[in-house]
Design goal:
By secondary structure, the chain is of the alpha/beta class. Helix content is about 30%, strand content about 30%. Strands 6-7-8-3-9-10 form a six-stranded mixed sheet, sandwiched between helices. The protein is elongated, with a radius of gyration of 24 Å. The structure holds adenosine-5'-diphosphate (ADP) and magnesium ion. Magnesium ion binds next to helix 1. Adenosine-5'-diphosphate binds next to helix 1.
Length: about 300
């Protein structure tokens, strides 16, 4: 099957700086794909290359089989892009902006019904005749999303669509994007709200320093080695200044942090028994009054990969 987006060995430098060092990603049709990475990882550079707004130095990118350079028009038609930056012509109203964008794709009056639907779905109907400059940042962001969708593209890429958007509106956007995906649109999302990527995306690529350092299903990432650790926090009856010497070496090695009457331990989910660990702690004379466990989430995977292993 033709991929929604095929990215082959894409490289891009700005002067001597390598923003993308040979990126390979295949995004399937109908997927909800997350492109994650710290600031400066190269996410927007990659998206701009897919959108035809920037040129790769080498490598190939195709959207639904259309090369973004050689077959730009068809590639662009298959694609809806919500850019990270809010750029607008301040002189036009919301509806005018959407009608102009329609015209760019050769659509005229027949598209008005769809524009009305978009305005409604994005809670912009009562702003349709407002001038762009009169809108708040969150409203502008929604107009950008509507603008990306005027030609009903099969593949939709959203670059940090919820950056600076309040929590309530974020929920509306997530629901809207999820519905698009359910209708069959391929969605590619970059975000630094990892919790939301964890909620929404099927597969995730993590980009760091211009390289893909992980590319897998969310489920696999969450079952990786990193996620085999279990964080256990015990609260003791009294503040613990230092671990008692009689505490078994095997347990001592698992202690990561001590603060007041709390002790954090890192356990291997598969090998360590919480019950045995607690018994050893009790045997060393530490009285445990409460405990909490936490499992690793996407954030832990991300931090581990991008800060501990990925930095070079
Ligand atoms: N037009 C440009 N000129 C010079 N450097 C750039 C340009 N665009 C991006 N960069 C650099 O490339 C790197 C990747 O940027 P970007 O793709 O925006 O990252 P991200 O979207 O992941 O935060 C950054 O170090 C950035 O400063
Ligand atoms: Mg960016």
């Amino acid at each position: 099957m033709t991929a929604a987006i095929s990215i082959r060995n894409v490289k891009k430098s700005y002067g001597a700086f390598e923003a993308l060092k040979g990126v390979d990603i295949t995004i399937n049709r109908g997927e909800f794909f997350g492109l994650l990475g710290p600031n400066g990882a190269g996410k927007s550079t990659l998206i701009n290359i897919i959108a035809g707004l920037a040129r790769a130095d080498s490598g190939e990118v195709a959207v639904l089989g259309h090369d973004v350079v050689k077959d730009y028009r068809n590639a662009r038609r298959a694609l809806g892009i919500v850019p990270q930056e809010l750029v607008f012509d301040a002189f036009f109203s919301v509806r005018e902006v959407l009608e102009m964008q329609s015209g760019y794709f050769g659509l005229g009056k027949e598209n008005r019904g769809w524009i009305d639907e978009l305005l409604e779905a994005l809670a912009l109907t009562d702003k349709a005749d407002s001038n762009m400059r009169a809108l708040s940042g969150g409203m502008k962001r929604r107009v950008l999303i509507a603008q990306a969708l005027v030609h009903q593209p099969e593949v939709v890429i959203l670059d940090e669509p919820t950056a600076g958007v309040d929590v309530e509106l974020r929920q509306l956007l997530w629901d809207f994007i999820s519905q698009l995906n359910q209708k069959g649109h391929t969605i590619v999302l970059t975000t630094h709200y990892l919790e939301e990527a964890e909620k929404l995306c099927d597969r995730i690529a993590i980009l760091n320093h211009g390289e893909v350092i992980a590319l897998d299903t969310k489920a696999s990432l969450l079952q990786s080695e990193i996620c085999n650790t279990l964080h256990l926090m015990v609260k003791t009856a009294e503040a613990v200044a230092a671990l008692p010497p009689q505490l078994a070496e095997s347990i001592r090695n698992k202690v990561k942090r001590i603060e007041g009457n709390r002790i954090w331990l890192e356990l291997n989910k598969e090998q360590d028994s919480i019950v045995e660990v607690l018994a050893e702690i009790a045997a060393a004379g530490i009285q445990v009054v409460d405990l909490e466990t936490e499992r690793a989430d996407l954030e832990d995977v991300f931090v581990e990969l991008t800060t501990k292993r990925g930095s070079r």
